[in-house]
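pinned: reference chain
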Amino acid sequence: MQDQINERSVALSIKAAKLTGRILAKAIQDFLKKAREPSVRHGKQSVKSLTKQGASLTNIEISGENIGSFKKTARKYNIDFALKRDDSQTPPKWIVFFKAKDSETLMAALKEFSKGNVKLKNDDEPTLLDTLAQAKEQVSQIPDPIKTRQQGEREI
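pinned: its structure tokens
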């Protein structure tokens, strides 16, 4: 194992007219600075990777019917979140974990999400089944056409 650690190498290329020790030291410092920075993920991720980022987490529950449209809205608002399904209830609920600093952004996203999914139902409009029932009644009231020889009926 020690041999594997010792055998690692790094390739560093520098464009310079004259390569001095200061330029080389600055390039190595910049490289090490970028190598030490942890890569931060954004968007949908696991709860474990969300907790690794060091921010305190909060959560909310949403129904599972429109989880896809929630993901779309969360991406639009650039929210770091993790989804967990809670099967203890019927129907199952989804728990959304997010960073505490994203709470205001999440509330704005949830308002837009709920506005798009909640449709106001007018009680004045008949339902589709009522409309179909009325159409069936109208069709049943139409008398059958009288068949005559002129319309192509044959006598036996």
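why pinned: The first strand starts at residue 57 and ends at 63. The two ends are 101 Å apart (CA to CA).
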